[in-house]
């Protein structure tokens, strides 16, 4: 076989990522992050690595072998422009000793994310493929493992659709020692602020649900406050403390402990899932959390940092969320792709609301191929993050060309799908190139998000007209569709330390002036119930590809790429701290 790749059939393979890794008496994992052997193919090599069967080779002996940290973006590691700009295949390989002690266990290889198209080989055999970056996938490798020996994991990644690449081969996961066949594959929890609880437990396909008992225990810290049985069910939990976003209350969290018992009363599997009691609702004006109006004060962002490039980094995440709190922010959008689940979990803990977004930026063509892939991504995104109380909304796409007629049925199908999988959260699309006057989709949505750049891409230098333009634009969206509106992007580039007074574009002063002028419009729009939140573009400067619009990346951050505050950060902080108190 020469080509193992059947692009058109990939989404037909069931790639259940299942639950995040966890350690207890029935589950364990090993983190495979670290230095992997790395080989880059020629950019237009015609899939040479697959033809030459790299997966059967010891790649550390390859003439172009190097190492690459996982997780990180390989683009940012090298001294060569060719690697920075590489489009095509790269190969990752790692040797992993798997002990005799692990025999009899189920072993999975789980990837938190691989950008964009990945083929995974275990001991030289292909065990699966995944398309679409940023979301987890896993494969059962039990039958391929050599116990008491080294095993070779090889991952071929093609970043065809994206500039930056994030292969994050992460974990080996092992389950159930005694009866490896039955385990918890997924947990769905819906819990609202007055204590109503619904759950659904999915067991793996090979299991026999009649052979096992499913126990549900809700824990408040160590104290059990609710007990029930059944793979699915509902009930009421008394005296719950709801989960609140920052500024509105405490982000109270609970644990649902799910236990599987065999007919002979042996525990087969157990999993602790964190959740919160809270509800998201909306009317034509506003978003409500636990029936109280929620005004979003936040940021569009990137999961990006110097040296490390795109992808999850725990130090950067901690710094970012600390800065969030310092700023008085309560919300962010995972522009323009789902961020690491670790970040969503930390947002649960800190009470920061999250709008989860798919990696679908600037869609122009609405083919059936794109739709199938987009449906898969929406499904995987919601499945991964459905139990996180911090997630308040699903964003289907950023800046699609919804002025096209074909966009309507395309988006209708995705919006329906998102509602079908999760009936508890609103669905949105973030508009950019289209207008209220020519858009074909916004009436299908629950909430409408709009990006606008008055004083920057539109009317550069005219700070005086920002107030009226912003009011005119958002009021039109509001009047046409009668839905809550969120400002999801506005802003200006500034090069840190570049000072000009009176202000000139790219100076810190200009960014600051533009932000202040735009806030005048927001004050008016907020007072008149036109908008239900505001997010600046961007939290921090980030790297982009080269264009005449960019000077070493995008400088619309109110923080530098190294997370140092610019002038506009202080303006925004004053506003957010003041408004957060009014939420
Ligand atoms: C190794 O890299 C060099 C320089 O980029 C390239 O010319 C050569 O084709 C590469 N070798 C293989 C086997 O990919
Ligand atoms: C891998 O990426 C290259 C470069 O974009 C592309 O030409 C090639 O078709 C891709 N291969 C597959 C199988 O997607
Ligand atoms: C902004 O425009 C609105 C609507 O025209 C107006 O009421 C308001 O006074 C303006 N704000 C400022 C600060 O000029």
TrEMBL record:
This protein's record includes keyword Lipid metabolism: no
Signal peptide: 1-18
GO BP term (any one): carbohydrate metabolic process
Domain Glycoside hydrolase family 2 catalytic: 283-578
PROSITE patterns: GLYCOSYL_HYDROL_F2_2
EC number(s) stated in the UniProt entry for this protein: 3.2.1.31
A Pfam family this chain is assigned to: Glyco_hydro_2_C
Enzyme class: hydrolase
Record InterPro entries: Beta-gal/glucu_dom_sf, Galactose-bd-like_sf, GH, Glyco_hydro_2, Glyco_hydro_2_AS, Glyco_hydro_2_cat, Glyco_hydro_2_N, Ig-like_fold
Keyword Signal: yes
Domain Glycosyl hydrolases family 2 sugar binding: 30-164
Keywords from the named record: Glycosidase, Hydrolase, Signal
MF annotations from Gene Ontology: beta-glucuronidase activity; carbohydrate binding
Coiled coil: none
GO cellular component: extracellular space
Domain Glycoside hydrolase family 2 immunoglobulin-like beta-sandwich: 182-278
PANTHER family attached to this UniProt entry: BETA-GLUCURONIDASE
Entry similarity comment: Belongs to the glycosyl hydrolase 2 family.
Described purpose of this protein according to its UniProt entry: Plays an important role in the degradation of dermatan and keratan sulfates.
Protein name: Beta-glucuronidase
Gene source species: Mesorhabditis belari
């Amino acid at each position: 076989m020469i080509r193992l790749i059947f692009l058109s059939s990939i989404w037909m393979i069931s790639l259940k990522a299942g639950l995040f890794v966890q350690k207890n008496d029935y589950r364990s994992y090993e983190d495979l992050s670290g230095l992997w052997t790395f080989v880059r193919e020629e950019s237009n090599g015609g899939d040479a690595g697959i033809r030459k069967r790299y997966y059967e080779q010891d790649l550390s002996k390859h003439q172009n072998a190097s190492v690459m940290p996982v997780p990180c973006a390989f683009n940012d590691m090298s001294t060569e422009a060719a690697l920075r700009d590489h489009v095509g295949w790269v190969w990752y390989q790692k040797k992993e000793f798997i002990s005799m002690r692990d025999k009899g266990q189920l072993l999975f290889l789980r990837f938190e994310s691989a950008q964009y198209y990945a083929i995974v080989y275990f001991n030289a055999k292909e065990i699966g493929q995944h398309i679409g970056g940023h979301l987890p996938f896993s494969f059962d490798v039990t039958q391929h493992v050599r116990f008491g020996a080294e095993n070779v994991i090889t991952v071929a990644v093609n970043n065809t659709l994206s500039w930056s690449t994030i292969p994050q081969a992460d974990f080996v996961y092992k389950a159930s020692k005694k009866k490896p066949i039955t385990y918890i594959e997924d947990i769905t929890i819906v819990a609202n602020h007055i204590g109503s609880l619904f759950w659904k437990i999915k067991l793996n396909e090979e299991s026999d649900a009649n052979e096992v008992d499913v126990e549900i225990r809700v824990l408040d810290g160590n104290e059990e406050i609710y007990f029930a049985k059944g793979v699915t069910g509902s009930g009421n939990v008394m005296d719950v403390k709801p989960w609140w976003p920052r500024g509105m209350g405490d982000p109270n969290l609970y644990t649902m402990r799910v236990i599987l018992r065999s007919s002979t009363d042996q525990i087969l599997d157990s999993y602790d899932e964190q959740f919160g009691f809270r509800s998201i609702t909306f009317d034509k004006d506003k978003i409500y959390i636990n029936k109280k109006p929620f005004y979003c004060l936040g940021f569009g962002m990137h999961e990006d940092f110097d040296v490390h490039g795109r992808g999850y980094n725990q130090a950067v995440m901690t710094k970012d969320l600390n800065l969030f709190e310092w700023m008085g922010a309560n919300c962010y959008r995972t522009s323009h792709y789902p961020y690491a689940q670790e970040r969503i979990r930390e947002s649960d803990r800190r009470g920061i609301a999250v709008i989860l977004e798919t990696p679908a930026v600037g869609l122009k063509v609405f083919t059936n191929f794109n739709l199938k892939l987009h449906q898969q991504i929406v499904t995987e995104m919601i499945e991964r993050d459905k139990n996180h109380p911090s997630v308040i909304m699903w964003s289907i796409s950023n800046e699609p060309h919804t002025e096209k007629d074909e966009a309507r049925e395309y988006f209708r199908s995705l919006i329906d799908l998102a509602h079908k999988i999760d009936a508890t959260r609103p669905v949105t699309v973030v508009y950019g190139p289209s207008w209220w006057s020519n858009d074909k989709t916004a009436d299908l949505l629950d909430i409408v998000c709009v990006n606008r750049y008055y004083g920057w891409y539109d009317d550069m230098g005219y700070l005086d007209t920002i107030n009226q333009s912003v009011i005119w634009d958002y009021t039109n969206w509001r009047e046409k569709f009668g839905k809550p509106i969120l400002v999801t992007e506005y802003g200006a580039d500034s090069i840190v330390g570049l000072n000009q007074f009176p202000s000139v574009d790219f100076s810190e002063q200009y960014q600051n002036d533009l932000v202040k002028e735009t806030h005048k419009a927001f004050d008016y729009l907020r007072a008149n119930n036109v908008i239900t939140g505001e997010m600046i573009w961007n939290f921090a400067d980030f790297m982009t590809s080269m264009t005449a619009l960019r000077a070493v990346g995008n400088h619309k951050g109110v923080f530098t790429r190294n997370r140092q505050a610019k002038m506009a950060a202080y303006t925004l902080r004053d506003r957010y701290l003041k408004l957060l108190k009014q939420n």
